[in-house]
């Protein structure tokens, strides 16, 4: 701001938003007015808030003492049990918290280096950071601060925001504005302060910033750009602009002495931001749809290519409004084939308007992660899209909007983690903050009646889309999907690394295993449950697989009931008397795709002796038919089952097929 005759402008990105990625609004707005009689300065107040105001040893030590003081004052009486237990732990067990505080600098630096990609180190760092943000939240309770979100249940209306802005006990931004803002707006040459508010979570801080700025500089013109209703009705700014309404913003600059701008550039300029200070080991740049920029895939590809030339290998992630499926199809057609140094994460709406059967070219264009923002009634469409995306090597993160209660979709997502790699349901920010791993509402678990696997999927800790994209880029879908965090929340194990196969008679099953196998078979949903326990108790042989003490797969050689054999023989025209039936094969969704079912069937078949076997497979059960083919099993008959309401196939191992007609 060296030219006193120009219109000096300070662009501000307020808390709370992710400190992992450079703000699009700041870079784009600045690029539109740079060089037109305007002297520009950028201030990422969000990054400053996290790195220099709350996540420092000095600040956190103060918050520890403040929480203890507030507990003595009775502030936390009647709070949810998760809050009261956390406060009690801080008061009665302070040493671990003091250690977290002393390590904050180390942990923040880890998130900027390649140590980030070591799962156990990352888990330790991000857990401590999230814990310390909970500590900070308690210091300003009932406000909650997360790495990407802010909430206060009392700040919902104008009368609430007016009280909140001046409330030092609940407003974590007030002292920050007073300490960090004064030096930036003290120069009399500054004529315009523009606060950019792309997210509702930034509204409380933006209004606090505007209020504080007016107290410090009553003569300063303050403008707020954003769509949240609290921004317009608060009365804290001189100008209120709709988000991305650059025309009115440029008119404001002209009134304050700037050159009359007739046009502006449409590509954001990130060069004015402290790129290496953000909490990410790689440069991550946002992509956002705008009426003047990037409405078509070639515009995004041009932007990505230009930024790669400026910054080297980079990662790009789309923000804001989800892209339509037609955009993905266009990206498939327009993508270059030499973009190996580019990785992208996109947000898309699976609207079914475009049929895309092969996403390999989209993957080659650099897309590694897609956030599918779904609505109700899309299960069949979504399933096909997820299969195609997963087959191309793209990670699918499915987001169900708040308020949608679709049990069928929830079950589908939970039962198919091999294609719906991660999923969550958007809900109020407060709930997020109450969970130590930062996750949103838990969806119904796959195979809900079966004992849960130990630990949790590693992706639960990748609660920032930037971190999820970076890990997918580095590790790939298969590796990342198989990582789980042990119960200690410190160590990682890989699904499938220590599996044990067992083949036993029913009477030799360990205690409780028959119950678990019955639940596994019933959870598969492909057979009637009436005779499951009876058939398993009388089976010729049962095969099952365990890992870390958990049952993960099973199959069996059944001795089918006479009336059942007669019915199948009558409908298929094949004499199956004295045959064993191979069936009740079930593999936990988390373990699918590892060849477990195939190995189970091979093991059972090897132990059959001189007996023969058949399998009944529904024609629409593609996965089981593929497994049968891999086991050299052939379909010898097909009939329509009135009971099942579908076509059924009779399958027999090739080397057992002789004259199956009974003659």
Q: What would a concise description of this structure say?
A:
The protein is an alpha/beta fold and 663 residues long. It is 39% helix and 20% strand. Helix 3 (57-72) runs antiparallel to helix 5 and helix 3 (57-72) crosses helix 7 (119-139).
Explain what this protein looks like in three dimensions:
This protein has three domains: 7-203 and 218-255, no CATH class; 282-494, no CATH class; 500-656, Gcn5-related N-acetyltransferase (GNAT) (Aminopeptidase), CATH 3.40.630. α12 (229-233) links the parallel β6 (221-226) and β7. Residues 1-5 and 427-441 have low confidence and may be disordered. With 663 residues, it is of the alpha/beta class. 39% of the residues lie in helices and 20% in strands. The chain contains 26 helices and 24 strands. It is elongated. Strands 8, 9, 10, 11, 12, 13 and 14 form a seven-stranded parallel sheet that branches.
Which bin fits the share of residues in helices? 25-40%
Tally the helices.
Answer: 26
Cα radius of gyration in angstroms: 30 Å
Terminal CA distance reads 98 Å
Overall morphology: elongated
Please report the total strand number as a whole number: 24
Largest sheet: 7 strands, parallel
Structural class: alpha/beta
Query: How many domain modules?
Result: 3
Strand fraction equals 15-25%
pLDDT average, as an integer? 84
Return residue spans where pLDDT drops below 50 for at least 5 consecutive residues. Answer: 1-5, 427-441
Task: For the structure shown, list the relevant keywords.
single chain; 663 residues; alpha/beta; Aminopeptidase; 3 domains; 7-stranded parallel sheet; 7-stranded mixed sheet; 26 helices; disordered N terminus
């Amino acid at each position: 701001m060296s030219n006193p005759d120009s219109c000096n402008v300070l662009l501000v990105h307020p808390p709370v938003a992710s400190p992992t990625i450079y703000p699009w609004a700041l870079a784009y707005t600045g690029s539109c007015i740079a060089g037109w009689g305007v002297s520009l300065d950028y201030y990422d107040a969000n990054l400053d808030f996290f790195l220099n105001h709350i996540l420092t040893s000095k600040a956190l030590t103060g918050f520890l003492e403040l929480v203890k003081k507030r507990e003595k004052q009775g502030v936390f009486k009647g709070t949810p049990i998760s809050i009261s237990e956390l406060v009690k732990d801080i008061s009665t067990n302070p040493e671990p918290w003091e250690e977290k505080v002393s390590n904050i600098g180390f942990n923040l630096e880890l998130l900027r280096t390649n140590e980030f990609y070591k799962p156990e180190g990352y888990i330790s760092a991000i857990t401590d950071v999230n814990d310390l943000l909970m500590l900070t939240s308690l210091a300003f309770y009932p406000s909650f601060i997360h790495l990407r979100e802010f909430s206060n249940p009392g700040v919902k209306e104008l009368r609430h925001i007016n009280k909140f802005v001046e409330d030092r006990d609940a407003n974590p931004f007030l002292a920050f504005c007073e300490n960090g803002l004064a030096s930036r707006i003290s120069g009399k040459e500054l004529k315009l302060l523009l606060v950019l508010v792309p997210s509702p979570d930034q509204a409380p801080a933006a209004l606090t910033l505007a209020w504080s700025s007016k107290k410090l500089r009553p003569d300063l013109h303050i403008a707020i750009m954003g769509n949240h209703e609290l921004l317009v009705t608060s009365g804290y700014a001189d100008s209120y602009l709709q988000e991305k309404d650059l025309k009115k913003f440029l008119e404001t600059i002209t009134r304050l002495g700037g050159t009359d701008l007739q046009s502006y550039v449409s590509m954001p300029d990130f060069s004015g931001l402290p790129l290496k200070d953000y909490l990410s080991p790689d440069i991550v740049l946002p992509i956002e749809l705008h009426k003047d920029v990037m409405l078509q895939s070639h515009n995004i590809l041009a932007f990505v290519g230009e930024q790669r030339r400026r910054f080297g290998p980079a990662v790009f992630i789309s923000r804001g409004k989800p892209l339509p499926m037609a955009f993905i199809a266009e990206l498939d057609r327009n993508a270059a084939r030499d973009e190996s140094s580019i990785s992208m994460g996109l947000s898309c709406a699976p609207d079914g308007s475009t049929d895309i059967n092969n996403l390999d070219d989209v993957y080659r264009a650099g897309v590694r992660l897609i956030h599918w923002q779904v609505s109700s009634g899309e299960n069949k469409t979504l399933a096909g899209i997820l299969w195609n995306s997963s087959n191309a090597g793209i990670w699918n993160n499915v987001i169900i909007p708040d308020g949608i209660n679709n049990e069928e979709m929830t079950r589908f997502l939970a039962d198919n983690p091999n294609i719906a790699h991660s999923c969550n349901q958007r809900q109020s920010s407060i709930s997020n903050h109450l969970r130590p791993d930062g996750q949103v509402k838990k969806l119904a678990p796959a195979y809900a009646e079966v004992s849960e696997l130990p630990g949790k999927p590693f992706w639960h800790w990748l609660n920032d889309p930037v971190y999820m994209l970076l890990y997918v880029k580095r590790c790939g879908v298969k590796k990342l999907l198989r990582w789980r965090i042990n119960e200690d929340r410190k160590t990682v194990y890989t699904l499938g690394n220590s599996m044990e196969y067992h083949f036993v008679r029913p009477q030799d099953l360990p205690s409780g295993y028959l119950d678990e196998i019955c639940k596994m078979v019933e959870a598969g949903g492909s057979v009637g449950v009436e005779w499951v326990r009876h058939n398993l108790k009388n089976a010729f042989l049962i095969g099952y697989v365990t890992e870390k003490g958990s049952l993960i797969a099973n199959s069996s050689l059944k001795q089918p009931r006479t009336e059942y054999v007669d019915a199948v023989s009558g409908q298929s025209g094949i004499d199956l008397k004295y045959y064993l039936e191979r069936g009740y094969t079930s593999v936990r969704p988390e373990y699918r795709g590892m060849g477990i079912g195939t190995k189970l069937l091979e093991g059972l078949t090897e132990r059959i002796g001189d007996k023969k076997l058949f399998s009944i497979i529904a024609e629409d059960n593609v996965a089981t038919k593929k497994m049968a083919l891999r086991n050299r099993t052939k379909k010898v008959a097909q009939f329509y089952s009135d009971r099942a309401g579908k076509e059924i196939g009779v399958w027999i191992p090739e080397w057992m097929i002789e004259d199956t007609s009974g003659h």
